[in-house]
Amino acid sequence: MLVPLYEAVYDRVDVGPHTRLLGLGCGSGLALLIAAARGAQVCGVDADHERLDLARERLTPDSSREVPGDTARATVLACGGPERAAAPDGSAFNLVTAFHPVGCVSSVEGLTASLATAAGLAERGSPVVLGGWGPVERCATASVLRVAQRLADPLRTAGGWRPSGRDDLEDLADRTGLRPDGSGRVACPFGYGSLPSAVRGLLSTGLFDAALEVTEQAQVEKELSEALHPHQRPDGTVWMANVFRYLIART
């Protein structure tokens, strides 16, 4: 669903064979795969073992790729913090991405620490890209994600989703000591072939995990289906228009 965001950012920062990218919260590696297809050397870290296994399936076959005119480094996909992706020879990254939307993370403090560590692994002046939801009124999925927020209320401090603030990305950059250097908005519609597919897809994001800890799955699925119903088209597909925002900061 966030491919338009990845592509817009990569166009703007000119990702190519000269790029050495570190992806924070890389998940199943789609954003890294798109960058690798442009010739970039990519590394990623995430806390989810299963999603990292998917990323390895996508990226490991290309991990020994040689890049003309540059120092080749193997693709590293590690579970944990950005320090796990540090090169033994001390070579630095020149692009850091944190596409996982601010407001969908378990701890802003944890993300701040990860960004600070990642910035220390990058060349001075390198871009650090932060991703986030756009204005709530321009994100149809927000009304659906409020189900997760409401059902998980007793555990709200444990994570999940919350509406984005206007200056969330700038505040995060400031906390990390990064210098803002431009931003943009990208349309990222969420589309599914059917209502059950939409339910499965949204549950797979992890945004409903806190709700599932305190509410039976059948109840979560029922309320999620009800919230999705207004977005279902006559042909059965589900379509939600959204706008995502990104901020480019510099180390």
From TrEMBL:
The record's section on InterPro entries has:
Methyltransf_11 (IPR013216), SAM-dependent_MTases_sf (IPR029063)
Molecular function as annotated in GO:
S-adenosylmethionine-dependent methyltransferase activity
Short name of any one Pfam family annotated for the protein:
Methyltransf_11
* Protein's UniProt name: Methyltransferase type 11 domain-containing protein
Coiled-coil zones: none
Domain Methyltransferase type stretches: 22-105
Organism source for this protein?
Streptomyces paromomycinus
